[in-house]
Fold these 2 entries.
Entry 1:
Amino acid sequence: MREAAFQDLILGNVIVTFDGRVVEFFGENMPGRFHLLMLSMQVSGPTNNGNYVVDFSNKFSGRGGVKLSIAGNDWPDVEPLVAEISAALQQPGS
């Protein structure tokens, strides 16, 4: 299982985990989870100030998601998790 813990620029302290099938989010007001088969993920950045945004949503409705705002200095800790989720989303049947 891979996880990343960081200070989200908007949401505060966040932990994101991925076990190969389910992405889970832990924070003060944002517990949630997505099965890979229902997940859409969009990554943008770096912005002009060096930050990144990762937007997780339901791939069928586009609703009910989690948007993470990640400072550029935290990105090296979060990027391997994002890359692993992205690779899993590219697999057949995802």
Entry 2:
Amino acid sequence: PNIVSKTGKLPNKIALTFDDGPHPEYTLKVLDILDEYNVKGTFFVVGENVEKYPSIVKEMVARGHEVENHSYNHPVFSQLTSNSEYSQIKATSEIIEKVSGQKVNYFRKPYSDSSSINSESDIKYLQKLKRLGLKANEYDIDSKDWRLDSADKVVEKVKTDINTNQQNYSQILLHDAHRDTQRTLDALPRIIEYLKSQDIEIVPVNKLGNITHAQQQTETTKEYRAITIKNIVLTFIVWANVIFVGIAIIRYGWLIIGASVYKISQTAKKLFLRNVDFKTFRKHKMVVIIACYNEEKVIGQTIQSLLDNTYKKFKIVVVNDGSTDDTAKIVKKIAKQDSRVSLTTVKNGGKSKALEAAIEKTTNKWVVFCDADTIFNENALEVFIRSTVGENLGAVAGKIQVGNDMNFLTRAQVLEYGVSHIFIKAAQATTNMITVVPGAVGLWNRKALNDAGGFSSNTLAEDADATMSVISAGYRVEYNSNAIARTEVPNTQKMLFKQRTRWQLGNLQSLAKHRKGLFSRRYGSLGFFGLPMFYLDMISITLFPLLLAFTSYILINNALGNSLIFPPNIDFATSQSFIRLGLLFISIEVFTCLWVILFEQKSLWAKIKLLLTIPYYLIYYKTFMSYSTLVSMYRALRGTMHGWGHLHRTASIK
């Protein structure tokens, strides 16, 4: 049998106990009041507050008061595992003993107002304390100073309980850290005066239990080390979240403003161009270049979409980069039917070399590059040729849409592409800092491209590399959201991983190649804003799952009223300001998705399916992108290169 003994009730003796401190302002005032009446109190302190305000704990001891254990961060113990309870108690005792130099003898459980032993778990709790050399402590008079709305009511509550218990009392519960501690400060002198008037002696808790405080030399235990390590990790995580959530919010603010400015400028430009005679521009001949490798399933559909365009004065050059399937045969068949189509076959050497080979065989001022799996809208070339108004134009980026939204994975890419074009491309275009004219749909000025060195084979993202080079050569790069093309995106994780690791590795290579453009006048706003944003985008993609998980963790626990363990230097992580910041971060992410869905030209059912994809996109898809980016970074450090990164085609563009 388990024998539980209760001690501490002595005739006409009572202890004043103060929970939840130390507090930087109110605890010292409590000490002053106790000194004024020459009485000693017992402070059940919270470990994280001791770490934050060690000098106040030392002051308690110096003035002869008792310091005991009230957990590390005041959690609800019923929600903790046994190991967590043990760590909370032991680590806090060690913290107190290190600061105060005195042994801790008592532990008071947070949110506990019962001293009864009713279950096996209560016995195990007491056994746990015994192993730690502690005794359980409970009060029998609760002043309710944290709850009652006036000092008068607090005093009356104590008086009533004293009279009701008729000397069956031992401790009064007060608080030196709560929302209105001034109420406690006002009530405390009156409580002391009342107790003295009743000939009740005020003593520390250790005198009720006949325990003397010994000077304590402590050794660092694994529980204390665990909390120290955890605090270091949490500090890093919290600050990383604060910094990058802040940056993300600023970035989204810029994107929303930039996209709005772009929309206004496009409307103004449209009004201006009403007076422009486009007959001259329609005489321009442009060339469309398609570099391909093993694209027999899609190349015919792509070429036909171009031939069906409203703008007719162009030719198509298909560069077959050593395909081993029937790609060349299909192109030759089309070329026999339409003289605007021609085929050039080169030895397999990668996309950039294939593009350069095609450029050398043409002389047109304006060059459109198209991927082999991309279907142009029927007016896309017309829109491109109308975009050539103005001086010093180097390139125009078109808008890519997903043409095969058949499952959650492809619909997540619909949202991703939509955010990229509606917000990112539009905002970048307002200040000539577009980082990528996509190889799938982009118009280029041949002279600008040549001045920039053409398409280089030393990066996998030849389109990003060339875009930055064109801007650094002094040309403008614009974006036209009306030049639309649909592309076939990967519909399996394996295909997507293959594509994105190649893309991200190429982006990293381009960033490395143009690193001297950072804050360079030659790169203009791209150097001062575009490239830094590009770097931040790579970091944000990588950290997004951490940011979302941590922010959600804070918000969910706050909504449930759970107490979270945070070191004192970052307790702002649970503050209302941080919670609002987290809510704003998640709200903006959801808002951008909703905006994309609103303006997608799709059926109501298709929009509903996109709406249902948002949680998948934010939680799973972005985590997958983070992983792909990390793999790309690893490969970049290893110096690993890729070839074409050819994807399995399904010819499923609608």
